[in-house]
Amino acid sequence: RNAGFACFGSVTEHMADMKIEEESKIIDRIRRRFNGLKLLRSTLGDENLDYREPGAYEIFTDEQVYDDALDHIDICNRWLKEAAGVEEVYEQTEHNGFPAISIKHEGCLHPGKMMKTLYQKNLDLEFRWQSQVQNINVELAQVTLSNGIELNADRLAIATNSFTSKLLPELDIKPGRGFVFVTKPIPDLKWQGTYHYDAGYYYFRGIGENRMLLGGARSLDIDVETTTEFGTNQKIRDHLIQFADEVLELPHNWEIEKEWSGIMGFTSTKSPILKKVSGKTVIAAGLSGMGVALGMQLGREASELVI
Questions:
Q1: What is the pLDDT of residues 90-135, one digit of tens each?
Q2: Taking CA atoms, which of 13, 87, 142, 274 is between 20 and 30 Å from 158?
């Protein structure tokens, strides 16, 4: 399960990307995220996704970081105009008492309904859920399951994202675990939009009947979170609770209703890998935490490449 953010990047996220990748690659990734979201919405329909745009913001608690971000608003707006044809996406503002940057055209969706609709659109296909893959032979387009069953195909597409690192360790993809929780209803919850903090490492949004979803802080213990094992890092969980208490100032009696972890797949530059690895096999993986935005478009491109 993902957190349901339909986003194309906050200013500080783009600033962080500038340290690891050239400008043209960042613009291309913004374009792919923006177009991927358009394709997702047009293919599945906003009503089936519970898609909405309640207002998106990046908030700040450090004055210097905020000033640096403001200095980069113009270049980020130029990138969005070049990549997607939209203007004045990022704008200086204040939100709930915090220095902030508003972000136009970002939204959120219900990831469960997204997957359900995708499945319903492909009922003529056969899905084998929870079939653990032990080995892949890319030359033969052969998949071996953990129970010893071998599956042979004319063409094979590897779209295992984070778990690709276990099947094809030579590829530049590392796993990254993310932790998310959802609160019980909070009366008069003031955080009703979608929010980013600290280069996108923290993310939260209002959902349902005054509940809040909060996740991230993987950067707090990055080495431990570079894993394909599901589970809870208590250090990160405690930190997010403290963040909710002391920064977001949720009421003292708020409670967690649900929590879970998910595994993402990261490349060193954050750009996904899409290529043929043999005459029969294509790989599409390493979406670097941008699966909602990149997934639909990357899937289309992979299907064209595998034929």
A1: 999 999 999 999 999 999 999 999 999 999 998 788 888 889 999 9
A2: 13
CA–CA gap between residue 2 and residue 112 (Å, rounded): 9
Cα–Cα distance measured from residue 5 to residue 154, given in angstroms and rounded to the nearest whole number: 36
pTM more than 0.90: yes
Rounded CA separation 204/192 (Å): 9
| Signed CA dihedral, 27, 30, 34, 35: sign only | positive
Q: Cα separations (Å) of 91 from 54, 87, 230?
A: 16, 11, 37
b (16+ CB within 10 A) / e for 124-163: eeeeeeeeeeeebebeebbbeeeeeeeeeeeebbbebbbb
Can you say whether residue 9 is alpha, beta or left, with left for phi > 0 and alpha for psi between -120 and 50 degrees?
left
